[in-house]
Amino acid sequence: MVEILICMVIICFFIALPSVPGYWGLWEAGGMFSLTLFGIAPKNAAGFTLMNHAVQLFPIIIIGLVSAWITGVNIWNASDSEKMPAG
């Protein structure tokens, strides 16, 4: 149990670096690095880290899209500055 906590802390240090949205790449690098520290084979570490990232990220994206749909927010026009009131 302590090992996975340490792995997540190491991943957090990795994703603190500037990256693309969703931390793709840095999350996996941090996960592979941390799991190999505990003797996990690189192939298994890569598979676990990718699934870990997907399981933690995709539900948030889905909940956000459903929330936008329920509240009537058009995500395609959300960044359209012409329709925003001046404030």
Structural write-up:
- The structure is a single chain.
- This protein is mainly alpha-helical and 87 residues long.
- It is 64% helix and 0% strand.
- It contains three helices and no strands.
- Helix 1 packs antiparallel against helix 2 and helix 2 runs antiparallel to helix 3.
- The longest helix is centred in the middle third of the chain and has 30 residues.
- 11% of the residues are buried.
SSE blueprint and pairings:
Elements: H1 2-15, H2 26-37, H3 42-71
Helix pairs in contact: 1-2, 2-3
Runs in which pLDDT lies below 50 for 5 or more consecutive residues are none
How many domain units? 1
* Average residue-wise pLDDT: 87
Query: Looking at the structure, what is the overall shape?
Result: elongated
Broad structural category: mainly alpha
Q: What profile does the largest beta sheet have?
A: none
- Secondary structure: helix percent: 55-70%
Strand segment count: 0
How many helices in DSSP terms? 3
Task: Give a quick set of tags describing it.
mainly alpha; 87 residues; 3 helices
